[in-house]
Amino acid sequence: MHNQGLPVISRVKVLNRDSAEGLADWELSVSYYDTKGRVILSRFQNATKSSTTQGTGYNSIRYDFMDRPLITRSSNTNTAANKTAEEYYKYEYYTGSSRLYRSWHRAKTTDIWQVMQKLSYDDLGRISREVLGAGGEVRDYKYNLRGQLESINGTYANTGNKEGQPRTFGEVLEYEHTGNPVKRYDSKISSMIWRGQGATRCATITSTTWPAGCYRPILTNTSAGPGPTASSTIP
Asked: Is residue 160 part of a domain?
């Protein structure tokens, strides 16, 4: 058996306060494997009070000789409405590597594939650029010496300069230092700068005045060592 030691069937009884007995129907899932023990098909049934309104569906995966997913197929059916949504995804990889190069998507109702994502990597194998759609959004990633994420579209976050690319989001993360009154010594994030689409530059600084549209973090400073912690509220 190719599924020896692997989960095959799952049944979960779901609580439902609207049900007379306090329980809804069973939520079911079944997994099928190939000779290498890889999931090639999973089927599921959502839990509802009535079997006439249950949703069902399946996901299937086709692999290449390097065990990389090549094409996935997803289907969801609303039994009550007798409607099915079916989608396909396919993936391209860099030659001889498991690093994803580009992913595509199409619905069953069309033969046209649409680009979802295109990725570039630096010399250490980290994502350096992500392009969403057919150039709909560009995100450049930078890292510090420890390999921690340092910024996403850092120039845009700081200055608003899109550098000739479609950008609607930017973020800069700082560790251990910044304008906060207490320095961190645990390699965790100490402050953040970000900018949305056309928004004013926002930053986690100890200021009582915040530009409109900024998501405001409230800093609670400690006297030594760990540095500030943050929770967020809308001003």
From this structure: yes
